[in-house]
Amino acid sequence: MGHDHDHSHGLTATGKHRKRLIAVLAITLAVVGIQVVGALLSGSLALLADAGHMLSDAAGVSIALLAAWIATRPANDARTYGYQRAEVLAALANALILIVIAVVIFIEAIRRIGSTPEVQTDIMLWAAILGAAANLVSLLILQGAQKESLNVRGAYLEVLGDLLGSFAVIVAAIIIMVTGFQAADTIASVLIALMILPRAWSLLRDVVDVLLEATPKGVDVQMIREHILSVDGVVDVHDIHIWTITSGVPVFSAHIVVNDAVLNAHGADEVLDKLGTCLGSHFDTEHCTFQLEPASHSDHETHQHA
Fold it and tell me: Confidence band (pLDDT; 50, 70, 90) for 16?
């Protein structure tokens, strides 16, 4: 017997913050153009690396927006959850783009060792300052939404990395201006590449957890089991499964063993309502499916999960 308290499939977590992502995309693309021109005029690899990183951010945000639109398409018999997991695939692509950008920057930095060209620091410095200011604005735009969506979090982390990258370029420009140490530009580009990789790995790990249908972070399965067993009429629970379709859409299912006397129309409905309320209020899991089983039938059940 199944009981689902929320059959709706509205906007995903990314879809709810679409306007924020569009604003960040516009800011990022504008700064990328300025930094690419600045890098070509100044000869700065660090500035070009920062521009490349920001371009990857723009690509990631574009993918997230496209995925958010795809995810709103309705479910059908072939895809009973619709296209909501498209957002997770977009986050995967975003993480892979970050890794590729980091590797390319690192290779170019290695190629420049021993033959560092002269850098025009005035152009380099002003372009980096502009990039830092734009990244700070983008961070403020995304701050309130980054905990709700993998894609928004990915964009937030990328912008944060861009901000740190811009600071690295600023520091490198000042060092070159004061000391004439041209290699500071190459060193800054390597630092930017090294800053990208940990964030890409963190995002990739979260995406893999969703694709492997791991238990969502912060969910205590044992505590859920205890809450279910505290409901009147429930004698056991097994085959508990908790996973995430996409950011902000956790799903729960379980087989609930109840006293035989409970399995009448009124008793079953009361148990299901209590279970749904429990999961929805204590664990922020509104999409719940329960299979009620009489205690006398427990010997016939093959448990697939604890």
Answer: low
